[in-house]
Amino acid sequence: MVFIVWQVNVVDFSFYLEYNNLIYSSPQMTSPSTSLSSATDTSLKKEDQFRVGMILPMTQKNNADVFLRAVEAMSELGFQVSALAEGDNTAQKKCFDLLQGTPKFELLESTPQNRNKILAHSDVLLFPASPEKKDIEYVAKEGIVSVLPEGCGLENFDAQKETGNAFTFVSGKFWDMMASLIRASENHKFSYDWKNIQKNLKEAQL
What we know:
Blueprint: E1 3-4, E2 11-12, H1 14-19, H2 36-43, E3 51-54, H3 64-76, E4 80-84, E5 86-87, H4 89-101, E6 105-108, H5 112-121, E7 124-126, H6 133-142, E8 146-149, E9 167-169, H7 174-188, H8 191-202
Parallel strand pairs: 3-4, 3-7, 4-6, 7-8, 8-9
Antiparallel strand pairs: 1-2, 2-5
Helix pairs in contact: 3-4
């Protein structure tokens, strides 16, 4: 069972996942009987891994194909990836496939509460496509470091100059996006750099 949300051809498919007895995260993370809430509690809050959150609907406009390709690569790198179960039919099918065997990938029911959980517990937010200005303003205000396309109003971080407030890439370019994600994960290991990024972000004039 699915229901339409936001716009035509965008569906919240978390209910379809549940109907078909699929779990919300990889079998290596939880058992098939794990509830949505417990899956959220056990995976999003782990501190021993780099956590990537994605809150955009998975549609062609939002470069869902690039994101879903990256899920497999991020999993191989040991990143925990959490996303909202919302998108078009193509993304839905790909997500079903990923859930069957991709470790560290988790889908959460598309609710405001789960969106907030992703925002609160992710080390970085990944925007495969340019987010709305209100999202940029929110992450800046809260100091949430983002990996996002160039030209969104945030500046690519330069560790030597200690300037910049995000990790940027060329929109739609898979390898460029992966390079930015890896760079973010490496900088996250150094609290001095990370605090500088967050400081620059909160001081950004948008």
